[in-house]
Specification:
single chain, mainly beta, Porin, eight-stranded antiparallel barrel, 1 helix, 8 strands
């Protein structure tokens, strides 16, 4: 059986189209992006603190590369010795619509501080005795994602978690608003559930 040029070119174009579809990333119609992740972080700057955190994100796809949605987490800060529950808006931008892609992520919201142990001591890593209330939480990150299956995969990123607290300023000898920064490694799993 002898194939002519036109048949071979048609078959090649069909194979390229099928291979291209096999390399695509998320299916916008297949549901939201769900992420469960953990972060281990070291303090950055004079008021930074080591912390560990876990988060859940539920983002809706705007298109194949951009998603946005709510998230909630838990973190514990070692030197300041408090826990926090951040509630935030999360966005992901994936640079490639492929199974392996770099991405940027931004999380911005508020957090509630609780279980504080190092309070009112007028020392470094002490927080004010006054009620903290809700305060600013922010976490930009850059990382990569890799699909294991079309709907399940892993993500890894470097993030800078920032929490605004009323902490003791050793230079001013008073309590002031300070950003507690922690530079960390974030690892998580992501999944899509059809219609969810």
């Amino acid at each position: 059986m002898i194939m002519n040029k036109q048949t071979i070119i048609t078959i090649l174009f069909a194979l390229v189209a099928v291979a291209g579809q096999g390399q695509s990333s998320f299916d916008v119609e297949e549901g939201c992006l769900n992420v469960i992740d953990v972060t281990l972080a070291q303090g950055v700057g004079e008021y930074g603190d080591k912390c560990i955190s876990a988060n859940y994100l539920h983002e809706k796809f705007i298109n194949e590369r951009f998603s946005i949605g709510p998230g909630i987490g838990y973190s514990h800060h070692n030197n300041y010795n408090f826990s926090a529950i951040p509630v935030f808006l999360s966005t992901h931008y994936f640079f490639l619509d492929k199974r392996f892609s770099p991405f940027v992520n931004l999380r911005v919201g508020l957090f509630a501080l609780f279980n504080a142990k190092n309070v009112g001591t007028n020392e470094k890593y002490s927080i004010s005795k006054e009620k903290q209330g809700l305060s600013l939480f922010m976490s930009p990150s850059v990382g990569v994602k890799m699909h294991i299956t079309p709907n399940i995969g892993i993500m890894a990123s470097i993030c800078d978690d920032a929490y605004l607290v009323d902490a003791f300023d050793t230079n001013k000898n008073d309590y002031r608003n300070k950003l507690i920064n922690s530079l960390g490694i974030n690892v998580g799993i992501f999944f899509q559930i059809k219609g969810w």
